[in-house]
Amino acid sequence: MQAEKEEEEASPEEYVALCDFTARGSEQLGFSTGDKLLVHAKPSADWWWAELQGVIGYAPASYLRQDAAEDEDEDPWQDDEYFGSYGTLRLHLEMLSDRSRTETYRQVIVSNSASLRNKVVMDLGCGTGIISLFCAQLAQPSVVYAVEASSMAEHTRQLVKQNGCEEVVTVLQGRAEELELPEQVDILVSEWMGNCLLFEFMVESVLLARDRWLRDGGVMWPSSAALTLVPCQADSYYSEKMAFWERPYGLDFTPLQPLAQQEFFTKPKFSHLIDPKDCLSAPCDVICLNMYTVQEMEGEFKFCVVKPGVFHGFTAWFTVQFESLEAGGATVELDTGPNSDPTHWKQTLFMLDKPIHVYGGDSIRGNIVLRRNPVWRRHMTVTLHWTINSSSDNCQVGTKSFPMWK
Ligand code: GJV
Question: Is the pTM of this model over 0.90?
Answer without folding.
Answer: no
